[in-house]
Amino acid sequence: MHRQAPSSSEPSPRPSSSATVDLTPPNDEPVLSPVAFENTDSLAKPPAVPKKSDRHLPTLSRQNPASSALTMSSPPTASTEFPELPPAPPSKQYGAGYSAMHPVPTVQHYQADQKAHAAEADEYARIVAARRGEQEARERETDRDGNLGQADDGKPAVEGDEANAAKTQKKQTGESQGGKGPANEKQRLMDQMNANKVKPTDRIKNAEKGERRVRDPITGGEIIVKDADPKDFDVSRAAQVGSNILFHQFPPPRPASVDTLLAKLKALEYGSAVALVVVWVSVAFGSGFWQFAWRSILCGAVGFGLMAGMSVVGRGLEKEVERVRQDMHRQRGEAFSPPTPESVEWLNGLVKLIWGLVDPSIFVSVADMVEDILQQSLPGFVDAVRITDLGQGSNPIRITSIRALPDQPGDEGYPKDGWINEGNPQIKSKDTAGKDIEEDQAGDYYNFECAFSYAALPGQGAHLRAKNIHLLIEFFLGLYDWFHIPSESSVQINGGAVLMTVPIWIQVEQIFGVVRLRVQFITEPPFVRNLTFALVGVPSVEVSAVPMSERLPNVLDLPFISSFVKMGIAAGTAELAVPKSMTLNLQEMLSGAAVGDTRAIGVFIITIHYCEDLSAQDNNGKSDPYVVLAYAKFGKPLYSTRIITGDLNPVFEETAMLLLTMDEVKSKEDLSAMLWDNDKASADDLVGRVQIPVDELMKTPNKMIRRTDKLHGFEDANDMPGTLHWSIGYFEKAPLLKELERAPTADEAKAAPAPTKTAPEMEMSPYDQAPHPAKKDLPPPPPDVQKTKPDPEWPSGVLSVILHQVNNLERQNLAGASGDREGEAGQDTDEPSEQSDNLPSGYGEVLINDDLVYKSRVKQYTTNPYFEAGTEVFVRDWQNTVVRVVIRDSRLRENDPILGIVSLRLSEVFAEASSVTQTYALVEGVGFGKASISLAFRGVRATLPPNLRGWDTGTLELADVAFTADATGPERFDAQATGLRIITSESVEAAPKKAARVEGDTVSWDMDRLRMPVYSRYQSSVVFELGRSGALAVLGKGHPDAIAVLWLQDLTDDTEQDVTIPVFVGQDLGTLRLNVINDQTAKHHDFQAVGSIKARIKLDSGLDEDHDKLRLSQSRRHALEAYDHIEGEAKLAEKQAHYDDDGVIDKQEKRDIDRAHKRQLESRGRGLAQVKAYRQAKWMLGGVKDRVPIGKKKAREPTVQTEA
Length: 1204
Prior knowledge:
Number of helices: 20
Largest sheet: 11 strands, mixed
Radius of gyration: 37 Å
């Protein structure tokens, strides 16, 4: 099936007077379509560029022989060298979902990409035109020397290209098949003689429009592509001869009488408009203003109706003729498929058979993708959109041609490294036992290209429309969230707002496109592993939109609806167009294996120790440095240290964990550490950066390596002052242990098939009389992730949480009944319905150890939201981790209430498995439903100390604080009655001077046990300040006399311990308190120890009621609400139950009980919260408080991953 580039026996489309252009294939070699122009010749010589008149087969994809390169986006210059193309991006894995690296596509982003593609196409056309001019000049010089057909180097000037039969010839007038004929020959000679008179701009205009060079992710070569156009697939024009029945000239072009009829209809449309203008002029004037207005409106409405009606009829007639032609093409192919060889109709017959048997539910992910794109791209006057139905019908997609691509088995250099590991030997997939998966490195590859098309069946009846591919889309109309449009078909949302719903029937009329595929075949069943595919350009899609109302016209004639739906589909398919691609693991899909592993292949553990001799970025000769960790190409910050103000030698001692996936390895990423100077009034300044290739760090796994790196600027050659001292370790995932795999249950053992004999077991040597019995002793299969619990030796690792969908999601009907209620059913008894007037707009949040880490997109107005969204995070100890998945209802100008929560302890979830997929009921919210959730954990080969395996959120308990002065030190600090302040990042507690008791060299304070809420515990400290001095000391604003600093990362969770902390005095205690105080700090900071503070300290993990006193951001507030619903309210009720132990409930206790009761009612949408005005007023008040810059300090904002 694969043809090499044409040799001298297959003339190339060379624009020369000494050779004719003949694309007719040999009779014994039928050519299939589409074919990409493949060439392995170097571009040191000009490429073969046929004239427009010689292009029998306008190309949708053709292989570019370029070996030199620059980027296509470079500005146009006089150079005729083709720019170098970057490598194709890593293939997206099927089912990976959206993330920050793979955000939700939008029409706006697609339009921006189109502009970039247009610039690339213009640059390519310019280079082609310039090379064509150079080639023609050489040919004229060669002709004068009498060396016809030879270039300067004695080789043929033009190498032949393969024809692409997916595209058809542009011009046939005066041409015969193969490019011969008097008219064609004469035109070519005239073009050659006048070539030097043609303007360069005209050459570009005559070039193929929209073609651009890209990297093919399938073969790894460079190809020329353009987005599909229906004209390129016009089956009425013969692309070439051959035995493929689909490319015989049939059916005939559209009859000329149809064009005449349409022209008459258009003339009638204009005539009607003119006639109505005459009527309006005749009757509108002379009868007063109101008569003038009425007659003008009447004439205008009648005129608009007539013109719209005739336009709809004209477009319908035109589409129906095209449907009939396409149906004739389909019928002809089916009629001739049995006797005609080399045809793909046998495959179309198989597709047609399977098409009707496919379960429509497998297209839910496709509908979800289209819905997300449309939702993200909505204009302001449309509030939301949802797809309520998707059907493939019984009219299948058709395959028009298949052809093999280069690099087949037996070819030189087969297989290419890029197919296996993207050219990077570090890329190796491992199974659950930690062994390399041989299937990824073994087997054979088959590359091929396939052209496909689709045409709706003729006719527009309801029974025919259902046979075509269709979607039912509902638009919810409003205006920028300010008001909504009521109508007969309206839905009441969120208890008050009314939206006008416009259901639109979207029917796919035509699809034309080309796709390239690479299939990996292996020796083990099911004999196929990975399928990688990439669309060659964005397919051409034509749709029609019909409102589900007999009173409305076909809205496809309205430009907004047609362009919006088509652009949404185009934006989605563009994510799969070259150079992008997608890979499906068919082995796992066909065998039913659980995809229970994590996408992360390992973890980087990074400790930022300190920096030295940084450059001063502020006017005071100092800097306010902080360090940001990221992957250089991706660019998004993944971790940021605290800011240390006024210091050129900061000591951080912070530890971060970054996940590493195959995407970073395939992209050959660099790990980047960037030092910035924090500025409040302007953009932060770069102090310096360090970049290390990821593959270099992976060479020494499972151990920490201390490094000292010189800082560089934005360019590596640009040195910056300062050095960074840090430690980095790459830690691989730990294998599962076979001995931890549980035995099968009785039902599993009964249902399991009998073990089959393996291929080695059945092998026989020439003189054997029976198979080798010894070969039964084969290695056991790797542990099953669904039956093997994580290894307790490695408690730290990667946790994957995926929210698939929520079934029967609905809000409680909290409206009270009225009138005669005897014998009536209570609330919440109806089945959930998409037509209900109480539809939720659900979205999911993932909380890990009381920290919000992930938020999904909103699924508007549906009772069965399909998310297929999730995240992967590093957890310090899976045995002490709590995961909560919260489903909320997105409200307009209200706080989003909790519909339900799923709370899970990983020690229980992973008691018998490392990967679990289960349906959980939503509880403790204002709604109902069942969420399908998958969780998977894989430990890494790193052992963290107990103090680093705690939660990042907690409450610090302090008691028995006492200061002891050091009488032997060089700096004397007398033990005297003084005030004490205890400060964390979120709160401040103080003990006055009068509470101090002095006993010799020891000062203690009488105070109750303190509870201080803490966020970002591993970046925070608790500071003890002794005394106050300075001009503002009387107001409590002076600087402390001495400080003691305890970093909370040194504490172990939920363990009460006595701690001794050194007390220091010095010149700049404000900067000193931000540094970890050690020997390195003493080199650059002036301070002395004057004593120590002893205290009894305990760090309680997780949230509690003390956190409610803080000024919280939205993400912190959401986490606290989830905690209250699951634990907080129950603990508070238990605490208040003891208020009566002394026999008296005082006024404060009574207020606390009333406040808790009111809060519980409001959190569940009851009481005053049932009134919409009250909910909106509370939302506005909260917004004002968040924006007022005075009052309590706002808690530190966490990093929340999203799908955007």
